[in-house]
Amino acid sequence: MKKIKMTTPLVEMDGDEMTRILWQMIKDELLCPFVDLKTEYYDLGLPEREKTRDQVTVDSANAAKKYGVAVKCATITPNKQRVEEYGLTEMWKSPNGTIRAMLDGTVFRAPILIDSIRPAVRNWKAPITIARHAYGDIYKATEYRVPTEGKAELIFTDSEGNETFRETVYDFECKGVLQGSYNKDSSIRSFAHSCFNYALSTKQDLWFSTKDTISKQYDQTFKLIFEEIYEKDYKAKFEEAGITYFYTLIDDAVARVIRSEGGFIWACKNYDGDVMSDMVSTAFGSLAMMTSVLVSPDGKFEYEAAHGTVTRHYYRYLKGEETSTNPIATIYAWSGALRKRGELDGLADLVTFADKLEAACIKTLDDGIMTKDLVGLVTPGTPVTAVTSKAFIAAIHERLEKALA
To answer: Is 132:106 a contact under the CB 8 Å cutoff?
Structure first.
């Protein structure tokens, strides 16, 4: 079989633990036999981040900005225990956080559906994509444990040293806790442009929700910026594409989402998106069946799986045990990146390959061959066979080869 050619490299970001093992298996079995794979490789495994003092993460993000399409393996964000385990000199930052900041990107997460696993919400029929504004809010907040009685104030001093705002947050009569969070118009605007462009590219309706009735400055700023950008830059495009933009309060959005049939993008602020993406993925089936793509306002794409490095399975792998780790979301990261590369470079064969790779994954699952994490989720009475990761990828290879032939 003649291999499919690529003209522009993908930026390949390798990762950690069990997903790193699956990464190589996917390349060996599902990609390299069929595609003359061209990548610019960066090792974001924790040992290499330690060795380069995390410069490799910065370099990979710059490469993503240069080439426009990247694919990333899951990586460890070290805590104290990981610092000791890996002998690190520093608790290195999340690679995802660094890459998001450098690309000024928005994360879009969507579930992968199969007939034998029904969503927990019985009326959901199509995927719900969560768009998370991964900037600011409580993730960058300044916090203080109030030790005694006293007054907490919010003060703003402008760049010339003039105090232009001062307001009492609360007069504490006892111990308490204090938090100050922030966001900025430039990031919110980038978030809005990414959401509107992604909705147009996928031909899906876009929902956006905050709590502007309570947060009359913070949340309302999000609402007003989205409205302004939509009216100015996207309303005509949305009407031409036959899709809609819809704003509502976050609590109303939750009720509407549960009653809906799915098939839309739900844009959320940082914390809301963090929570709702896990809710949606669990209700649809499994985090291992959740795709994730980071999209910048200027059209750069970084594809990855929504889950982590599957540490527990990795420790078993190190003992020589076979594992039944689900590789679907990681395969879809590759197929998403290859499809986008093919679209941008005008390579129809590469786009078709990505489609057939995903179809082979679904065919394997529909044939009842799956990893152990999915067996307990299938509709009762459905005949299934639980297999190891290696056997599962081999089954996908078999179906992909037939589809391509």
So the answer is: yes
Do 234 and 98 contact (CB within 8 A), yes or no?
Answer: no
In the chain, the N- to C-terminal Cα span, in Å, equals: 8
Q: Are 265 and 227 in contact (CB under 8 A)?
A: no
Q: Would you tell me how many other CB atoms lie within 10 Å of the CB of residue 305?
A: 30
The answer to whether 102 touches 61, Cβ cutoff 8 Å, is yes
The pair of three-digit structure tokens given for residue 148, joined into one six-digit string? 């005694």
Bridge partners (DSSP) of residue 328 are none
> Rounded CA gap, 342 and 346, in Å?
6
Question: How far from 233 is each of 189, 195, 216, 239, 370, CA to CA, in Å?
Answer: 12, 12, 25, 12, 45
Segment 265-321, tens digit of pLDDT:
999 999 999 899 888 988 998 888 999 999 998 889 999 998 899 999 999 999 999
Task: Provide the CA 159 distance to its chain's centre, in angstroms.
Answer: 36
Q: Rg (Cα) of the chain, in Å, rounded?
A: 23
Encode 365-393: b = buried (16+ Cβ within 10 Å), e = exposed: beeebbbbbbeebbeeeeebebbebbebb
At 180, phi and psi to the nearest 5?
-125, 115
The confidence score (pLDDT) of residue 288 equals 85
Give the pLDDT confidence of 114-154 residue by residue, as tens digits. 988 889 898 999 999 999 998 889 888 999 999 999 999 99
pTM, 2 dp: 0.90
Strands 385-386 and 369-370: parallel
Q: Which two tokens stand for residue 156?
A: 């703003």
Q: Closest by alpha carbon to 311, among 42, 26, 81, 58?
A: 81
CA angle 370, 374, 380 (to 5 degrees): 100
Q: Is the dihedral of CA 279, 284, 287, 289 positive or negative?
A: negative
Cβ–Cβ < 8 Å for 19, 27: no
pLDDT confidence of residue 97: 87
CB proximity list for 299: less than 8 A, separation 6 or greater: 68, 197
Residues of the chain with pLDDT under 70: none
Q: How many CA atoms within 13 Å lie on the side-chain side of 137? A: 16
Assigned token pair, 80: 């104290």
Q: Are 115 and 366 in contact (CB under 8 A)?
A: yes
* Residues linked to residue 206 through DSSP beta bridges, in sequence order: 245, 265
Distance between CA atoms of 170 and 178, rounded to whole angstroms?
9
pLDDT of residue 379: 87
